[in-house]
Amino acid sequence: MSTLSEVYKDHPLHLKHIIPLDFASVGSLMPDSHVWPGSGDFSSSEEEYNRTSVPVIDLRDPNASEHIRRACEAWGVFQLINHGISPRLIEEVEDEAERFFALPAQQKLKALRSPGGATGYGVARITPFFSKHMWHEGFTIMGSPLDHAREVWPHDHQRFCNAMERYQKEMKTLAERVARLIFRSLSINSGEEISWLGSSSINVSTALQLNSYPSCPDPNQAMGLAPHTDTSLLTILHQSQTINGLQIFRDGVGWLPISPLPGALFVNVGDLFHLISNARFSNVLHRVVVNGTRQRLSFAYFYGPPTEFVMSPLCKGLNSGQVPLYRSVAVKDYVSLKAKHLDNALSIIRID
Ligand SMILES: O=C(O)CCC(=O)C(=O)O
Ligand SMILES: [Fe+2]
């Protein structure tokens, strides 16, 4: 059975699309490579609207599944509270991520993602689709980060590895719980479609992405992370508690900032739940803007079915008379399609 890393091996990248800028060496002048044409003003006056409107789901609520269904239909995102992830663990991951991103560029490059690799230090995977670079550096982890971490810290990598491994373990359990609630909201409680969910012997597709957005000399000309949807079933995001940056796109409204809600994790529907729900759930388009004074960190945990699993719009999720909008596709083939086409991957498998 192929892993997510093996799928990415078929889509090697050029080093110029892997190596981040040495942000610490940038003075007050933006390098042209990072100036986005027509980016203009990223601020939004919708902050209050967002604060009151993005659904907040309490995982202890007995009706959580129903609330999540409504949130996935109307928004494709929600803030999750009482999720059970210990604040202490989140702090540890923050400390370790900060320790890594604060290293001199030379040191960080020791963990550089290889051209055919999926894990390690580098720019966002979506970089080749844009003519300008993003104001961002990342570290992708799938399971143990030991191989990369010991290159960076030959004698002091254990605390980084421990924090990242424990965080992924807890995130996996949480993602399973949330996925089960979402499937239940589609009337899928058992059966072939979710036979992989929660199984200890079947490898689900997961990745932990540590994101760092350094402070920027001209935030209005830079892009933290360009607009994209996630390839996952769902994504669980922790973001720095006091710094805005993430924005979601709402039809008829435009870009809305997602202010961090203290203690909450932010969940968004990815392409795969959009497909499985036959487009009932929105795979929300999102981006990240940067700020002029502070570095922002976020940790995205991507969760999906095993790579061999074939997804199709679920029959039970379809009301009678509805037709499937997408063709069936194996997770690995969809990941490949997205690696090649980014914005068009879903339209390629759409049934006209
Ligand atoms: O930094 C964020 O808030 C979002 C990160 C994100 O969208 C991603 O890693 O896919
Ligand atoms: Fe994302």
UniProtKB/TrEMBL annotation:
The keyword Iron applies. InterPro entries: DIOX_N, IPNS-like_FE2OG_OXY, IPNS-like_sf, Iron_ascorbate_oxido_reductase, Oxoglu/Fe-dep_dioxygenase_dom. SUPFAM superfamilies: Clavaminate synthase-like. One of its GO terms (molecular function) is metal ion binding. Its cofactor is L-ascorbate. Residues 157-184 form a coiled coil. Its EC number is 1.14.11.15. Keywords: Coiled coil, Dioxygenase, Iron, Metal-binding, Oxidoreductase. GO terms for biological process: gibberellin biosynthetic process. Pathway: Plant hormone biosynthesis; gibberellin biosynthesis; Hormone biosynthesis. It comes from the Eukaryota. Residues 203-305 form the Fe2OG dioxygenase domain. Signal peptide: none annotated. It holds the Pfam family DIOX_N. It is an enzyme of class 1 (oxidoreductase). Belongs to the iron/ascorbate-dependent oxidoreductase family. GA3OX subfamily. This is gibberellin 3beta-dioxygenase.
